[in-house]
Structure formats: C-alpha cells, structure tokens
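Why do we care about 3D structure at all? Because function follows from shape, and shape follows, mostly, from sequence. That is the central idea of this module. The next example makes it concrete: a single protein chain, its amino acid sequence, and then its structure expressed as tokens.
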Amino acid sequence: MPDFYTVVVNRADSTFTGQETRNYGLSLQFSEAHIAYCVMDYRLNKYVLIQDYRRNDFIPKAKPGFKLSFDDFLKSVLTANPWLKNPFKSVKIAYEGKKNTLIPGPLFDAQEAEIFLKFNYQVAADEHVLADHIQQFDNYNVYAIPKALEESVKQLFPSARISSLSTILIQSVWMNFKARINANRIFLHIKEKSFDILIYDGKQIQYLNTFTWMVAEDVVYFLIFILEQLGLNPELSSVVLLGNIDRGSNLFELIYRYVKNMEFGRRNETFKYSPVFDVIAPQSYYPLLNFNSCGS
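And the structure:
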C-alpha cells in the first residue's frame, strides 16, 4: 500500500529476523502523522532495526482530497511488516502529542487530571487524558491522546502501556546528562512539525513546552522568547540539540546566530548499535532509542 505512506528510515541488521521477536524488545512512538520504532536484541544488548513511516496525507504533496484514517495507516504498516504482530519480550509505546503539562506530585489528583490539562489546553471530546509519573522529580506529565489512535494501537499491543514521548524525553535527558546538568541547561528537541524546549535548573525541571513550527524562524523566535522570559542570556546559555537537526542545516545556522554554546546529543553507550545505524545522526530519534532505559 505505497500510497498510504512514505518510508523515511528503514535500516535492519543482517541478523534481524521476524521469527525471533520473543528475544526482542520493541520501542514504538507514534503520532497522527507517523509511526517509528526500533528493535533491541536483548541477547546482544544491541539495536538491530529502526523504521519510520510517514502518512502520505500529512505530506504537502499529497493528492487533493486524499485522506485515510490512522487505523488504515497502521494496518498498511503491518501489512508491510507482519512480524510486528508477533509476541515480543517487551513492548514500549510513546505517543508524540502537543498537549501536555507537568503537575508536582503533592498537587496531583488522578481524578482531576483533565482539569489540570484544561488550564492550558482545550481538550476535545474525542481525546483521552492520561498521566505519567516521573519518579525522578515526583512530577506527573498529564497529556491528551486522540481516542481513535489509542484504540488502534491498543488493538495491536493490548498489554502495552502508552506513555507520552515528552515523558521519555525528560527521563532520558536526565539519565544521560544528570552529571552535567547545571543551572539553566537547555535541551531543544526538534521533531517534524513541532519541537520541545526542556530546561532544568540543576535539580528540577524548570520549563517544558511543545511548539508548532513551519520554518526555522519559528524555532528561533520561541527559543529566544522563552529564554528572555526566564531571564536567560542566549549568548551565555548552553543548548543541547536533539532530534531532527543537523550541523550545517538552515535551522542550525539560524540558531547559531543567537546561541553560540551548542552541542549535539550523543547515543546512550549502555547499548550497542548495529553498523546500519551509522547513517543515522546520534541525536536523531533520541527518546525512542533511550526508551529501554526509562522507567515508563
């Protein structure tokens, strides 16, 4: 069903086989627009596969009037990769959304989760409000997910718990950088049409928000605006770049005009990676490739 999706990434080690899934861990992230997943071979402590599929009706060049449901999109990916229906040793799933808010543990009440989220966002009738407990900081990440998407994924993986991708981002950044996180350390996580700004004060999360972007200037505008609101000097701030951004790109060059102290995220050295991952930048798919060492 090639009209349903475009393959963004498809890299598999020669040792990968769909008949060995009981020895594999599957980490999957999804949004309305795409599905990406990677496979860990637990026998080798090694990532052996990564794939990323983008819905064609979310691509600007899609045919006029072309529309499919997320369920159709998911089924087309399964048709191309029937081994995804096999049993895995573990399955971790994260939803990549734009509506989330952090609530301190002492103030959180599960019965009031939707009310908390409504302070910052409109919650539609077709959305389900969930919450992840971030134990490292005793915070709850409250977020909304479309019910149709949740139901489609749950039909495929009924026993797997869905987390927010921003929860995995928070946990993985803290786990990999906690020895180097000082006051006002900034993490910029770039995704296809949105990005996250995550700031720590050295001991706790100071700021987390997700923004939509269309052009590079959008990212720079929000980044500089947030730094100014928090009283931070862009020229003195330290920014770690994660996700869909590369050195020499227009986005990188534009950010560098204002922020001179930047570095790219690195791979988690706890795991091994097949040589097929060498063509993928270390900062790419950062939460996905760190999911296996997060508590969610």
